[in-house]
Amino acid sequence: MSKQFPNTTLATMTLVTALRELAGQLGARAQGAPSEERASRARRLRVHIDELLLPRAVDLDSPLLVVLLGSTGSGKSSLLNTVAGRAISPSGVLRPTTRVATGLVHPDDAERDLFPALRAEGKIHLRPSEGALPGLVVVDAPDFDSVEEDNRIMARRLLEIADLIVFVTTATRYADEVPWNVLGRARERGVPMITVINRLPSDPEDREAVVADYERLLAEGGMASSGVYGSLEIVEVLEGAVDETIDGLDRQAITALSKILDRLRENDEERREVARRGLRAALSGLPDAVGQIAVEMEEEAEEARALLDFARDQYQAQQARVLAHIDRGTFLRSEILKQWQEFVGTNQVVRLVSEGIGKVAATVRSLFDPGPPAPATEVKAAAFEDLVALVVSHADVAASASASHWAGRPFGSEALAENPSLWGSHPQLGEQGEDDLERWAASISREVRTLGEQRRGWAKAASIGVNAIGTSAILAVFASTGGLTGAEAGIAAVTALVNQALLEALFGEANVADMIDRARNRLDELIGETMARDRSRFESALGVDPGAAARAAAMAELAAEAAESLP
Predict the structure, then answer these.
(1) Does 472 score more than 80 pLDDT?
(2) What's the pLDDT band for 169 if we cut at 50, 70, 90?
(3) Which of 7, 77, 162, 426 could form a disulfide with 67 if both were Cys (CB 3.0 to 4.6 A apart)?
(4) Domains along the sequence of the chain with CATH
């Protein structure tokens, strides 16, 4: 009897695609939300899409879900037994009686894949019965005011996917606050509702007073026209109208309800129209529901940007301090500089420089032949060790300052709780820095060889000391006067001057200036990359997608627009 909703319809294809995309985004949001409250909001909306909107969009002729909602002891189970014509849902004095939702379904409809998520979770038990109404699944929901939280959650979950609500209350409970909070959500959804007022007094005047007061509350709550056929239908059940043989109500007492359900069962178009109405109403509220989440996501993205901006400023400030130390050469241990100065500051080097470049070819070999070999490897390693220690110490300062700032803000404090290592630099930062410096040193050695090949007459001799010359170039980058003169410059400046003189004697002033500039620029970039790499841990800790809110809002708008084109 079922006719599949035409999947080839452009409106349907657009709607289903938009809903699936939106469901995926909400799932990601639920995983990454900074609080359980916000994660729960995204999960509820995804359930609403997965369990109502998508199935209904795909198949408008699938059975209507009629949910019996009410307070503890209102008589929902008794009503379900009455609709079934037999006892299938226990009622009684034990509260809450309904602990798992029970669904009455016709055998023809039971063959469908109904409520797969709820059934997989064991949250609903479908009871096939020949007495059930084809095209309708009537579900006895747990009490929405249950003392057990799981029951309350399940009742509201069923409210979110219902095509038709039967609100079951009593003459003494209809004005309670909790039911009206739930009915308010039904009004927001635009789902049609029928009311069953149970245990009304037999006195006509008293009964009329109760019904009139309930109608007043409906009007004040904006629900006077939320019935299946326009105005809200109210079914009046008198006190004592029970059928003990089925643990239910007297069937004559719910004649008005039975007529509505029978009419939906017998008329495919009316049933389809109820489904279409519920789908459109639910979709019309989707942009606002997603909009609320999108606003939260935008707020979080803005907060995240502020936190990341702070971390960026801290790392940039510390990077500038590292570069300033390099400019002055003050980070190098004096014993390293003295050791190298003792080597390059020999009488041969001084004589080489004073006699001019013309003597280079004849004397460069003698520069390295006498005495012990140049301590290039040891000096370079010690210099790299000092620079790495400098970078790590300043990265520690940046990380600590950033973490301290984040700790005072909810979004940041949660990220810190999950990533305590953010209070300092990355444990592998020093090791990575050493590897980077070795690659940088190798690039300088390649330049030294290239320059040597371009200088005829001394290249062979110079090649003997390429490692030493490369170390000299490295120290020339690390140690400069930085604008200081005389005694103020200290050993760093003296070493820089001697290095500079040696390199210029070998390669020429212009070549040396260009080589040192290139090496320094690469070093600056390397240190910037190192700081950025350490700072990226803060970005990963927040895990905020700045475009997610806009995409979610766009998908919701698309779904609502597609709904207007549904046949």
Answers:
(1) no
(2) very high
(3) 162
(4) 63-264 (3.40.50.300), 306-545 (no CATH)
